[in-house]
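Backbone description:
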Amino acid sequence: MDTMLEIAKRVDAFMMERSPVHDTMRRLAKALDDLEIPFAIAGAMAANAHGHRRTTADVDVLMRRDDLMRFKDCWLGRGWVDLFEGSKGFKDVMNGVKVDVLIVGDFPGDGKAKPVSFPEPESVREVRDESLPYLNLRTLLELKIASGMTAAHRPRDLDDAIQLIRINALREDYAEQLNPFVREKFAELWRAAQVSEDY
């Protein structure tokens, strides 16, 4: 069992962007760039890039299904391994970090058809720190909210949205930029974000 000191060291390394997760993200970005595969970093690492600082144990990346196959054909057995045969995800052997792949055209949350789906990475990414392409804030919020709305086991997605709203000082009318499917939920989360945590 990890001691409090070991946990604190891991959190500190993450916040200093020197964690195994950060190393995996950079290695993955280079491997994808070398193959000229369009992608965008998603999930918690994208939330971090937009100011919501929290730790995570894996890397989420948005790409097309055929590009995932191309990556695997080139890199499996060369520092990366499949989670299981036919898996969308894979693992960085060097760091022991899992990579979850969000496939263009699939649906967030429960995976069932809905008005919000994973978009093409070229249309929703923005280059931020270290020249890495992350999901833009609007898309990240849409996906997080749609996921939390349709998957009861993913409440963290809704909390991430609240924190992103708060940290980025988004106005209530930001909802107008979002897919209509998530606007009402955004308004609810926006109201929650206005509640002060000072007790």
In short: The mean pLDDT is 93.
